[in-house]
């Protein structure tokens, strides 16, 4: 069974990989889904549109960021698993956040989107072979493998839940 020690990612992402459960990557993502969803569902309604300082994201905006980043991570994972050798670009999270349609997003809408996206992510990772999980490619000029991206997306969500606990509640 592959584990975090088999993950390939730029050193910057080690902090996210270490926050994911060091189990089978599909199980790690599923566990993270349950933890993140349970945590977000218990947040008081008035906290969702709160930012702890000027220029910082609200919790609603932060969850939109998690969703956007997960879509990028899963696209990269799909590209590598399908042996596409194309080097993939990076993305600027703050530009994406500034371009998101904040006026129409509610806590309920982003939470629903997260759950739907995560169900898709879980299904994708559940059936990858060992060879597909080990498949490597480049994104933002850094090496990754499909496995590493799975742990990153789980750890990235966990990281932001820690931020919410420390700075928003």
Can you walk through the features of this model?
- With 169 residues, the protein is mainly alpha-helical.
- The chain has helices at 14-19, 25-41, 59-81, 93-99, 107-126, 130-134, 146-167, and strands at 136-139, 142-145.
- A two-stranded antiparallel sheet has the order 1-2.
- Helix 2 packs antiparallel against helix 5 (107-126) and helix 3 (59-81) packs antiparallel against helix 7.
- The radius of gyration is 16 Å and the shape is globular.
Topology:
Elements: H1 14-19, H2 25-41, H3 59-81, H4 93-99, H5 107-126, H6 130-134, E1 136-139, E2 142-145, H7 146-167
Antiparallel strand pairs: 1-2
Helix pairs in contact: 2-5, 2-7, 3-5, 3-7
Q: Tags for this entry?
A:
169 residues, mainly alpha, 2 strands
Entry summary:
The protein has helices at residues 14-19, 25-41, 59-81, 93-99, 107-126, 130-134, 146-167; strands at residues 136-139, 142-145. By secondary structure, the chain is mainly alpha-helical.
Shape summary: globular
- N-end to C-end Cα span: 38 Å
What is the percent of helical residues? Answer: 55-70%
Radius of gyration: 16 Å
Strand content: under 5%
Order of helices and strands: HHHHHHEEH
User: What structural class results from the helix and strand content?
Assistant: mainly alpha
Mean pLDDT: 95
The poorly predicted ranges are none
**Counting H and I runs of at least 4 residues, what is the number of helices?**
7
Strand order of the largest sheet: 1-2
The count of β-strands is 2
Biggest sheet, in brief? 2 strands, antiparallel
